[in-house]
Amino acid sequence: MGAKKSVLVTDLDNTTWDWFEAWFRSFSAMLEKLSNDSGVPRSQLEAEIRPIHQLRGTTEYSNLLNEIPSLRAAVLPREPAEVFDEALHALHSERRRATRLYPRVLETLNRLKSEGVTVIAYTESVAYWTEWRIKHTGLDGVIDILYSAPDHDLPRGVGVESLRQRDPSSYGLRQTEHRHVGKGEWKPNPEILRAILRDCGKAAEDAVYIGDSLIKDVSMAQSVGVLDAHAEYGQVQHRDEYNLLRRVSHWTDADVERERALPSGVIVPTVSCTSFERVLDLF
Ligand SMILES: [Mg+2]
Q1: Are 154 and 160 in contact (CB under 8 A)?
Q2: Rounded to the nearest whole angstrom, what is the distance from the C-alpha of residue 16 to the centroid of ligand 1?
């Protein structure tokens, strides 16, 4: 494996925590409540949600309810987020309950740090929810530097502050440094990973990269010449519940199809991890 490794670059969603489980539970709870309270069928809500997610480039869009046409029409002149606040409460409380680290993630990162390894996180999720998850799971300060997408666009006249319901001091990271990758930059673009390593003064051979997606994470690390570790425990694409994400996702149909149709054996990870802790063997 060559040089001694001095930096871990880790994906976050479904690598350090089960993003999908938290998303699925919270989003389904919200949809169910919305459909019951508004009388709009779930299938119609899902169909109206997809283009909004695509426009905003995320499946975690804070102003979603106010932009769903059938909900708007149902409650005019009031705002859907105000009328259907119980659906939003269901979303938030399920998300809080279901967002948890995978086993031994915290211990593994602390062990690496005690051995002088720099811990970098790189996620495609938007800044706001990523910061929330890092704080919620206790990784603020355990991750040295976070690279994420910038926050999603908001409609004119809606400030991010108006969507935040807690004290301003409860937002933002205290110890982890948060840097942004360019808007519209997506994995597996190798240029982003190269730029991250340059930015931190590291070379490809200094680094280990761990992530759950063969298409996005493993192939990106491989094309940069970084030792890739596949978080196979985080794969959820085979689960029936994953179809809900496909139906409302901001991804294009082509992206969804490319992932679904990937034949096994096309992207072969260098190291397969049955738990996050296995990266310790690579340092
Ligand atoms: Mg991931």
Answers
A1: yes
A2: 8
Provide the residue ranges of all domains of the chain, joining segments of one domain with +.
7-18+100-282, 24-97
Centre of ligand 1 to C-alpha 212, Å, is 5
Q: Which numeric CATH code is attached to 7-18+100-282?
A: 3.40.50.1000
Task: Using the mean position of ligand 1's atoms as its centre, give its distance from the Cα of residue 236 in Å.
Answer: 10
Dist. CA 145 → ligand 1 center (Å)? 17
Residue whose C-alpha is closest to residue 120's, from 60, 19, 198, 182: 198
Q: How far is the CA of 261 from the centre of ligand 1 (A)?
A: 18
What's the first-to-final CA gap in the chain, in angstroms?
10
Going from the Cα of 202 to the center of ligand 1, the distance in angstroms, rounded, reads: 23
Question: What confidence tens digit (pLDDT) does each residue in 188-204 have?
Answer: 999 999 999 999 999 99
Q: Confidence band (pLDDT; 50, 70, 90) for 2?
A: low
pTM of the model: 0.90
Q: 177: which 2 tokens?
A: 């440094």
Per-residue pLDDT reduced to its tens digit, 71-122: 999 999 999 999 999 999 999 999 999 999 999 999 999 999 999 999 999 9
